[in-house]
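User: quick one - fold this with NAP bound?
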Amino acid sequence: MRIIRIHEYGDPDVLRVEEAPVPTPGPGEVLIAAEAVSVGFAQTQMRRNIFPAPMWRPQFPIVLGGDVIGRVAGVGAGVTDIHEGDRVGAFTLNGAYADYAVVDAATVLPVPEGLDAAQATALPSPGPIAAGTLGTAALRPGESVLVHAASGGIGHLAVQLARAAGAGLVIGTAGSADKLDFVRGLGADVVIDYSRDDWAEEVRAATGGKGVDVILDSVGGDVLRQGVGLLAPFGRLVFYGSAGGGLEIPKVSPMELIEMKFLTGFALSRWRAARPKEYLRNHEDLANRLADGTVRHAVHATLPLHEVAEAHRLIESRAQIGRIVLIPDHTA
Ligand SMILES: NC(=O)c1ccc[n+]([C@@H]2O[C@H](COP(=O)([O-])OP(=O)(O)OC[C@H]3O[C@@H](n4cnc5c(N)ncnc54)[C@H](OP(=O)(O)O)[C@@H]3O)[C@@H](O)[C@H]2O)c1
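Assistant: Sure. Structure tokens for the protein plus NAP:
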């Protein structure tokens, strides 16, 4: 099978296309013959070794992770509820960039037969992250929500799910005019270019000066710092990515939170382990919404697996609207 390994950190060229035997699933594991594999922003940070989260401690050669959609091609000992031929999906921190992936059976989700594989890559991680961050913020109907990087793979789902949850005001930020048009088309009430110096003032004005109830922040750095200042009393900011800040995580003093502001974080792997039923519920809800068209999963490009370096370049140039998906070579 084809597999993409990295043997050193660096530019997209470090992603090497290699051959390897199809792996055998161990106890509690499932082998998936991939139909589609997602590429997210986090994997570009991992490739550069600027990924800030503590749960990713890989060893070379590294095979990066992602959302894998496909059919079960084998199960390890002790796996009784998943069978060869089942159509499934899973998000894995390692081992996704290949024709076949071995994943933990506990993370495997059913994928409807009729759903296009690239579309289905929304199900294992982006949808649950969008829903899980809104759930962590305990969004109530009528409240205002600010979604940063709102045209991105996760952000564009969060905008739609916030709307569907009854948010009173949805504000989306993005870094270019075409991205802002896209976010408006998703149902955001207000769109703001946060590359402008006065973006935070625009957000405050959009809330009538009151501040925002919920902020979903995947950018970090100065955007997070200013976000704390934008929270309304009892407002909640959920930090879940550091696209703009890299390894620099801003420090926030408790005194900044004294006006009843809540600052928390979200990590899918931790949340999935702690709240497996909620993860499954969010998965089922999003699968239904994709099927009935009430949520749209935008796929910016599908590329063959061996063009993975191009996928990373696209993401690093901030060109993508929605997601980039790889199609494994064995499906060609
Ligand atoms: N907590 C978790 O469990 C978890 C899991 C997976 C991913 N994540 C995080 O979720 C976020 C979104 O992931 P995604 O795959 O959907 O990515 P994405 O939103 O499609 O891409 C990242 C976006 O961040 C924005 N951005 C802001 N400042 C940037 C900078 N200095 N350099 C590059 N981009 C910048 C860009 O949008 P604009 O051009 O509009 O600014 C870019 O398109 C990422 O931060 C990722 O690390 C978190």
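One thing worth noting: Residues 34 and 220 are 33 Å apart (CA to CA).
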